[in-house]
């Protein structure tokens, strides 16, 4: 192996990787996820010590329309995107990450319910397309998402992104297949799909804008710093220069680059 762990003391380990290690990028990415997971566990543990149940903790931090599966998927997405749950109010493609998770999870639940009906039936199902697929017009899909608590303009955007086209990777990413009668869904496939992994693939395949990533964390930091009486402001003078937060402390001007989590370990050492 080209990777070697060395124990320095009781609490410190180092990982040595030479330049030819094929898994260097993988290890860096995995370390980010481990750091994110540790932070989430710490937040939950702190909430538990304060006497709060996890369900109540999630209720206070996440939109009320999320069901338990949606809460789990949201936590998973926060790990993969290296964000805290609060950051999931940020928007990708003008749709909040919570709405992305909720929309896909609604399709998963709809597909599961369709399969339950199918397998509980004692009569054989005819080999007809409309008996094996869920087919609705765009207007009916729009009504479906609105009944689930989504705003009309957001639901329209989600339907557009979920519609399969030449940019799509597969039917997990984009579960809506255009057909004569509108858009059809394959319940046998989507019922077993991972909302989080499908969305991560969709964001990349359709190059959905993530320009606002990190803004929620930056605004949260600025509010807390200003509340402490410190003069602080973001700077964005032109396309090639911006600073997340400039602070004035004891006549010292401090330029700050904000990250929601620490950088991964440097592997060259």
TrEMBL record:
Highest taxon above the source species: Bacteria
Record protein name field: NERD domain-containing protein
Organism in which the protein naturally occurs: Salmonella virchow
